[in-house]
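Researcher: Please translate sequence to structure tokens.
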Amino acid sequence: MTDFTMTTDVDGVATIVWDTVGKSMNVMNQQGFTDLDALIDQALADDGIKGLIITSGKEGSFAGGMDLNIIAKMKESAGDDPARGLFDGLMGMHAILRKIERAGMDPKTNKGGKPIAAALPGTALGIGLEVPLACHRIFAADNPKAKIGLPEILVGIFPGAGGTTRLSRKLGAMGASPLLLEGKLNDPQKAKAAGIVDEVVPADELLSAAKAWVLSEPNIVKPWDEKGYKMPGGAPYHPAGFMTFVGASAMVNGKTMGVYPAAKALLSAVYEGALVPFDTALKIEARWFTNVLMNPSSSAMIRSLFINKEALEKGANRPDAPDQKVKKVGVIGAGMMGAGIALVSALAGIEVVLIDSTQEAADKGKSYTTAHLDKGMARKKVTQDKKDAVLSLINATTDYDALKGCDLIVEAVFEDVGVKAEVTAKVQAVTGPDCIFATNTSTLPITELAKASVDAEKFIGIHFFSPVDKMLLVEIIKGKETGDVAVAKALDYVRQIKKTPIVVNDERFFYANRCIIPYINEGIRMVKEGVEPALIENAAKLVGMPLGPLQLVDETSVDLGVKIAKATRAAMGDAYPDGEVDEVLFWMYEQNRLGRKSNAGFYAYDDKGKRGGLWEGLAAQYPVADEQPDLITVQHRLLFAQVLEAVRALEEGVLEDIREGDVGAILGWGFAPWSGGPFSWLDIIGAPYAAERCDQLTEEFGARFTTPALLRDMADKGQEFYRRFGAQEHAA
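Model: Translation complete:
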């Protein structure tokens, strides 16, 4: 069954409707390109057809992107030369879209040709915008919920079906940069203001407006096909254009630190393409796109940030249980965490009971939602009616009786076993037997906390990351007796609030904190050794970490680190490995340098809380050594400190799915997104090399770098994590 169909009306206007079978949004697949090509040929050859409209059969959207199976098939098409297969496949796509753009015009005179309009009912992303950009005029329905843009850079690639070349030539390098380099999405009105679409019309006038334009005998020659075309803002050899490209290069390298190949490749394609005729520019774009697709970083990012993330959000690891959609949630504790949980729940349309020990504290928690909505209104993203509706869903109170009828409780009180046990008893004295009780904790064992529950099978951990409204990840923790219904309830709830879940088993620090604490500790340990703090911080950023370990301590607070260290030491006794770290951390605590919240930490801060450089007093206490390690050694210490914990978590059954390990690492603490996550990174460098490097680090720096048995076994067998533990389908 074809995804494209064509009809022609009495006025000679053909309408091609894109309607991908079995999908809620159109997705371009290989057959789709073939069918579209055939229909364009048919329309251009039919003298009775005066022009065309390409539109969608999906209500409220045009298209959401490309089926990544196309990329895999291109690689396979050339046998032992996947790069050739990719390049040839991309040039085939370019040929189809160029055919639409030229529309039968005489190549020498630009005469003739049939006008082709794109009519977008709503969202148009990726190839869903690249097809319209090849058309002669883009009409968009005035649908404020629609998103229009090219978000490919966010998953490690760039628009490779002409979008990069066409948009930069249409808007100029400066105008196109937010869309190409940042993946910025616009609603139709903003897309028109930016010059992306040509007209925004009422939804019920979309096709009639497009038809009227087609019949108006318009000039359809694109600017870059006219003689004398000049790139808006100047080409690279023009003084203004030169400065634009110099600035863009600095911006890209400043933001990506050179570890994201797609951004550099995109900029190269725009720069080099601007120096040559349009058709040559398309070849350059295809070459750079092939280069990116052959880079393992891009494949890993696509797999983790697109395929795996989407699979987890759709319930890839959900138990077989009836629908557990949450209707009424009770949030216990109206502090920063509880207030954030109440906010995201109410925004999802869930009735919320927000409880604290005093009415003043409960009201303050609700005011967090008020402030969030007020900001939305100031940006004209939220209406007064929307604000009133969301706030009406939150009942801020001290009365536990208000929890009657809740099907989910999320407890977010102080991190203390006794306090949580007391709250659990008070809640379960009111709620019904089917209510699931979730505790929001980042460190306390779920199995231990479940002892206070009347039914451990309905007790589960839900670890939100702060700030709740901005952080995408939610870590769901199963206790020893947690049942399938509780897991399903937690997963369904996380899906309702539009977050990405990972499910892990109960062990100290669960997964995310288990991996991030060694990263922080390794950075602090190097300070004590005399490694230059600036080298530690910059090494982390140059390998793709969003924050260096010392800055991360400042952001989360030194006193929290002290508290965790004391609790861990008490639990582990003589096996506690981080005494050297504690020396530095406890000294900072004694100096009352608690981090950003005290305007004093590993970094210096001004009176307004703005972070400056690293604190000079650190070097006075821990002098910088005359001989410094090389950059790679510092980076490997910081990376392996994290990935070895991820491997051990998999080895011990804390992680049950490496997809959750990779997605959780990127979304939870920002593990080098270019790598696709810790398991993808190990696959990129190879298990044999990873094991060898661990042996070297162990010999030089200690047993914490000991190669896990699982990694050693994989190294001996030459295995990859995604071949041993993960499905390969759809991987680009």
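Researcher: Any highlights?
Model: The longest helix spans residues 82-102.
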